[in-house]
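User: Can you help me understand a structure? I only have the sequence.
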Amino acid sequence: MSPIEALLSRVSVPRVLEPGVSPDELDLILRAGLRACDHGRLKPYRFILLEGEAREHLGEAMSDYLHGDLVDLSEEAIEATKNKALRAPTLLSVIFCPRDHEKIPDVEQLVTAGCAAQLIITAAHMLGIGAIWRTGNAIYSGEVSSLLGLKENEQVVAMIYLGRPAGQLPSPPEVNPEAFLQRL
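Assistant: Let's start by predicting it. Here is the structure, written out as tokens:
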């Protein structure tokens, strides 16, 4: 697969199976993420790997958030939320870590962290690994931030679910680039 074919064929893969990423695959995926566009070379991000029991702890933190937020939460809803973190054997969280810099605003640094997440997903696709970027209110919650050990100024940008595709990948939808282009 050529690089351009990889870019044009990438799709989100919501259903993945064991095994998760190998140490060698993880190294390549992280190296790709570290190549994100980065004005000032600030590297305003870091990565947190969640495998095994760490995924269960994440599910607990997510359900704790929902339980505290909603009064009439059923046991089924709590269990479903806990299980969300178990939908992939490997979870990789991209954390935005803003750096103080007089010329590079936080918003630009946040975009850099998002670019790192996109490169991680693209590298996974090129390696034959299924990947999907998932978030939601629970991922941004204080409960999850506490579990991940985030500092006060840090936040989750992406929770990337990784594993072997559970089936054949769908074809990406055809999109006309001209519909998104304005010429001046």
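Now, to help you interpret it: Strands lie at 16-17, 45-51, 90-96, 130-134, 155-165. The chain is about 40% helix and 15% strand. Let me know which part you'd like to focus on.
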